[in-house]
From TrEMBL, chain A:
GO biological process, one term: pyrroloquinoline quinone biosynthetic process
Top class in the EC scheme: oxidoreductase
Domain (Radical SAM core): residue spans on this chain: 13-229
Gene Ontology MF, one: cyclase activity
NCBIfam families assigned: PQQ_syn_pqqE, rSAM_more_4Fe4S
Functional description taken from the UniProt entry: Catalyzes the cross-linking of a glutamate residue and a tyrosine residue in the PqqA protein as part of the biosynthesis of pyrroloquinoline quinone (PQQ).
Pathway, per record: Cofactor biosynthesis; pyrroloquinoline quinone biosynthesis
Iron listed as a keyword: yes
InterPro entries linked to this entry: 4Fe4S-binding_SPASM_dom (IPR023885), Aldolase_TIM (IPR013785), Elp3/MiaA/NifB-like_rSAM (IPR006638), PQQ_synth_PqqE_bac (IPR011843), PqqE-like (IPR017200), Radical_SAM_PqqE_MftC-like (IPR050377), rSAM (IPR007197), rSAM_sf (IPR058240)
Enzyme Commission code(s) on record: 1.21.98.4
Catalytic activity line of the entry: [PQQ precursor protein] + S-adenosyl-L-methionine = E-Y cross-linked-[PQQ precursor protein] + 5'-deoxyadenosine + L-methionine + H(+)
UniProt-annotated binding residues for [4Fe-4S] cluster: 27, 31, 34
Name this polypeptide is given: PqqA peptide cyclase
UniProtKB/TrEMBL annotation, chain B:
InterPro entries found in the cross-reference section: PQQD (IPR008792), PqqD_bac (IPR022479), PqqD_sf (IPR041881)
Record protein name field: Pyrroloquinoline quinone biosynthesis protein D
Subunit-structure text: Monomer. Interacts with PqqE.
Gene from which this protein is expressed: pqqD
Keyword Cytoplasm annotated: no
Keywords, sorted A to Z: PQQ biosynthesis
One record GO biological process: pyrroloquinoline quinone biosynthetic process
Organism of derivation: Novimethylophilus kurashikiensis
Matching Pfam families: PqqD
Alphabetized GO MF terms: quinone binding
Length: 378, 96
């Protein structure tokens, strides 16, 4: 998935340069910050077929997509992943696999290399076995580390993605040491964004300003020590900034996500916004979905903006922030993202931070499960 | 080239993480790498295409001076500056 820390030096010239295929929402893990829809299990019977995904790949290239992410859920649960990677390679994409590592067996790793896969992004949640296993609801810590080493041994460039929250943010130095030992090329500390499960668990997951500052200082020391050997991204949570993130580089600007059921989305979270329709590639061409569908036209450009965005001299920089966050926190998707200090709703963010800091009984964390009811003590 | 660390006999190659290719939809060469895309202008692309691990910087300068309709000194300075930047960004490395 494209991140705030990643670099894109060209505007898309109106093309969806970044295409992300969420092949499935199925996943063996139960992460308490998962950004898949809360009703993810209702999509299992609607997943696109191999041939339907191949059609998406062909149409995506015709629209000018260059970077391709295979994501999920856990994309390794699709038996046709290797076939789709080979198809994507033959079409000229730069192929990225975004995985938890579960299911990435030695056999499949070498089949993916054979198919031409360019890069693997592996997630790791902590430097400590018990904490990783607890947070993801499965015994996978050792497997993840083995997988990381096998990915490097197979000659892939690797991004190690670490979602960051209160429970693991103080381990930044241990994780840095681990990444250095494995030989990771890009290490990405991504403070989580608060949608879906992460929003349900926000009070328990939000780190403190002091924790963020300490972590960032550790990252800067490591950058000075490691130079070009490892590129380290540190994505600050927008809750602690006074300006919103330039979400997706603007709605319908360069990012196109296809959900497991074939819905074409401007971002992976957008189904949290009520009152929008989400047409799929089963009914429409990708060309129409990207260029003409009411969904992609809705917040493209800046015509839709209200004050304070409309007359703001920074609107070209952050495009008013995130539409999903505006909807979830203010009830209206066209409002300014409340992460912005200029937003009349900014107090919502401030009180969420204050609320998470108050001395109180800790709530159990809600894990990603079909009923959403499994809980672990935080 | 007093302020450069690049020597005429250096041989540069694109780092294996980077993929350089022509992209029809952008009408340009692009450099692709994990989670990133860089669109190159024509002269940048001509320089990177020649970073094959075999050609020396001096050879590269000679070839491009012949190719570009521009003052030789300007071409040479431009190439050294671009190689410096590319090296600093980790796109290319000096081959033994």
């Amino acid at each position: 998935m494209p991140k705030d820390g990643s670099v894109t030096s060209l505007d898309g010239l109106g093309k969806p340069m970044w295409l992300v295929l969420e092949l499935t929402y199925r996943c063996p893990l139960k992460c308490v910050w998962c950004n898949n829809p809360l009703d993810y299990d209702s999509y299992a019977s609607k997943e696109l077929s191999t041939e339907e995904w191949k059609q998406v790949l062909r149409e995506g290239r015709e629209l000018g997509a260059l970077q391709l992410g295979f994501s999920g859920g856990e994309p390794m649960l699709r038996d046709d992943l290797e076939e789709l990677v080979a198809e994507a390679e033959s079409l000229g994409y730069y192929t990225n696999l975004i995985t938890s590592g579960v299911g990435l067996t030695p056999e499949r790793l070498s089949a993916l290399k054979q198919a031409g896969l360019k890069q693997i992004q592996l997630s790791l949640q902590s430097a400590q076995r018990t904490l990783t296993d607890q947070l993801v609801g499965a015994r996978v810590h050792d497997l993840k580390l083995d997988t990381a080493r096998r990915i490097k041994a197979a000659g892939f460039p690797m991004v190690l993605n670490v979602p960051v929250f209160r429970q693991n943010i103080d381990q930044v130095e241990e994780i840095l040491a681990l990444a250095e030992e494995i030989g990771v090329d890009y290490l990405e500390f991504a403070n989580i964004q608060y949608y879906n499960w992460a929003l349900l668990n926000r009070e328990e997951l939000l780190p403190s300003r002091e924790q963020i500052d300490n972590a960032e200082a550790a990252v800067n020391r490591a950058r000075a020590r490691l130079g070009k050997r490892m590129t380290i991204y540190f994505v600050i949570p927008d809750y602690f900034e006074t300006r919103p993130k330039a979400c997706m580089n603007g709605w319908g600007s360069i990012h196109l996500t296809i959900a497991p059921d074939g819905a074409a989305l401007p971002c992976q979270e957008v189904r949290v916004i009520e009152g929008l329709e989400f047409p799929t590639v089963r009914e429409h061409s990708l060309q129409w979905l990207w260029h003409e569908s009411p969904l992609f036209m809705k917040f493209r450009g800046d015509e839709w903006m209200k004050e304070p965005c409309r007359t703001c001299d920074e609107k070209e920089k952050d495009y008013g922030g995130c539409r999903c966050q505006a909807f979830l926190l203010t009830g209206e998707a066209s409002n300014t993202d409340p992460a912005c200090a200029k937003s009349p709703d900014h107090h919502i963010i401030e009180s969420a931070i204050l609320g998470s800091r108050k001395p109180r009984e800790h709530k159990p964390l809600i894990m990603r499960t079909p009923g959403g009811t499994t809980v672990i003590p935080s | 080239m007093a302020d450069t660390t690049i020597q005429p006999q250096d041989k540069f190659a694109l780092n294996p993480m980077f993929l350089l290719r022509w992209e029809k939809t952008q009408d340009a060469y692009v450099l692709l790498y994990p989670e990133g895309v860089i669109k190159l202008n024509a002269s940048a692309a001509e320089i990177l295409k020649r970073c094959n691990g075999a050609a020396t910087v001096a050879e590269l300068v000679g070839e491009l001076q012949a190719l570009f309709n521009e003052d030789d000194i300007i071409v040479e300075n431009g190439i050294y500056r671009f190689l410096e930047t590319s090296h600093a960004k980790g796109w290319i490395s000096n081959q033994p």
